[in-house]
Amino acid sequence: MYWVSVFTEAAIFAILALGLDVVWGWGGDFDLAFYGYLAIGSYMTFVLSIGKPTPPVEYILGWHLPVLIAIVLAVVVVVCVAAVVGAIALRNLRGIYFAVTTLGAVSALYLLVENYTPLFDGYNGVYGLINPGQTALNLTYNGYRIVFLVIVLVLLFLSYLLVQRLSRSPFGRMVRSVREDERAAAAYGRQIFFTKYRAYLFGAALAGLTGGLFAIFISAFNPSAWTPEELLLIYAAILAGGRGNPRGVILGVFVVYIGFIELTRYLPSPASRPDFGPALRQVLIGLMIILVLRFRPEGIFRERPGLDTGQGPVSRPRQGRVEVLTTPEGQAADDGGPG
Amino acid sequence: MTNFLVTIGVGLATAAILALSAVAFTLEYAVSRIANFAHGEFLTIGAYVAYSTQGIFHQNVAAAAAIAAAAGMVAGLLLNTLVIEQFRGRSAITVLIATLGVALVAENVLDMIYGAANVTYSYAQGSLHHVGPFLWTTSDIEVIVSALVVAGLIYLLLQRTRFGKAIRAVSQDRALARVSGIPARRIIMGTWALAGAVAGFAGFALAATIGTFGPLLGFNFLLLTITATVAGGLGRPYATLGGALIVGLAIQIAGTYTSSAYELVFAFLLLVLLMLFRPNGVFVRRSSVTVRA
Lengths: 339, 293
What we know:
The structure holds two protein chains of two kinds. Helices cover 64% and strands 1% of the residues of chain A. In chain A, helix 1 (2-26) packs parallel to helix 7 and helix 3 (67-89) runs antiparallel to helix 10 (192-218). Chain A has a two-stranded antiparallel sheet. By secondary structure, chain A is mostly helical. Chain A has helices spanning 2-26, 34-49, 67-89, 95-115, 117-120, 134-137, 141-168, 170-180, 182-187, 192-218, 228-241, 246-264, 276-295, and strands spanning 126-127, 220-221. Chain A has a domain at 2-223. Chain A has 13 helices and two strands; from the N terminus they run αααααβαααααβααα. By secondary structure, chain B is mostly helical. Chain B has one domain (2-217). A two-stranded antiparallel sheet of chain B has the order 1-4. At the A-B interface, helix 4, helix 11 and helix 13 of A face helix 5, helix 10 and helix 12 of B.
């Protein structure tokens, strides 16, 4: 059962990473608010489905909706929040300014949630979504965990198909062309802000879905579950796997989560210092980020060159093999080559 | 009214530490054109070194401050040599992510050495003094005076020395500075040493003021530092001092009239608003150009 739980967690984070990769890998925007969307998705799923709070616990809404509807509504709320943050941060801030703004937004949100208890019960957080549907499906505890893993894997596969399809679509090429050269893309009639904005909202929606799944998976959520370190781990996974390449991203999450975390779980921790092992693991993750960025920034699978190009040579020569692909329809010039 | 003035006084003490940290951050940005997200670790390292050596120096403030600054200087030199210079020519955002990785490493190394729990670092706060309309403790006054002195020294350094002139040249155009015979690498190295020392000292001042701190001391202060820097305008040392003053006072006033738990919420909302309306700082006329770095 241990491995079922490990794989479930990795698969949930793989969906999150796919969403983040649309924002960062394709759009080139280093978003530090992203983990906040998972958190809002998770909190909203709880407060929409677990019913009224019993004092002294307090949180908003306290509805008693079926969990599926709760997740859908949670995704809607997440997209609304992302719409506000994105409208501020994406309009004319790029690079480090974008990163700093999103960090400011998520930090304000974090401190608000932690200190303002009527919202999501502050530091204690919300809990109580324990195996929804277990009795309805007439499953044992273990059976339920396995069914949940299958559901998460199916959702991961569907997200992968969607992202992969989007990646090859005119929209995917457009997002990348805007990343490569905003002026050229604008000259070709692309709306810079709306292109980025739509990619951002799509990524946030996937984060909201992940939040809902995470709520079911861990049955409790509080501020210690969404510290900045967690997000850095997702970025490390995307970097290692291959930024901009959906298959690489999924592989990266499984490598980092299962390979890295499970292997380092057995790091020695003296009994007097239980946090020694986890701290050492964070050190290794930090080092991995620096080394991958320095020596192999494209990751295990590089972003497919040629996806974002029309006929003719690729716009940005890369090291090593250069592929020139033409779209089957032969309409490349019409839908978003950067020129 | 008296309450308000006391608030302003406390705000000035906060602003003084913030100003030191922000000036260091902006100097780093000026010469290397990167946002150093490991900047907070300079403060943390300074604080921890002062804490570890308190047995040796007892309550000698000057010695503790000096050793914190020296530790920060070493950290600055190491970061520049081992990371920043290795990423030369890469985009600013790539370096930002790398420094975020450095922050993660530094925080957790400190965690492994000292543990995640807070340590107590107490300095006698001294007695209360009425200075004009303000009410300050002795250590508040020491912090404010030392911040003013450091700011003054940095001003003299930048304006009156060859080194300062070279820093200004490199921050405007590294290639052009090199063509003119300025050893850009060494100047940048020197700037990081200076920035690290100032930040390490700020870390000591912060720790001595707060009293208890943990490995996240600096990272939690980073966003406040960035807010102050952005308020002044990235890469502009003198304007940054003004930015720190504005941010320090604003959070103190907002915190007093609502609840101190929300101080930082206001600070970060202020950051978002600044980015929205004045991304180049409050002292510059609004520009409509896309901001990128």
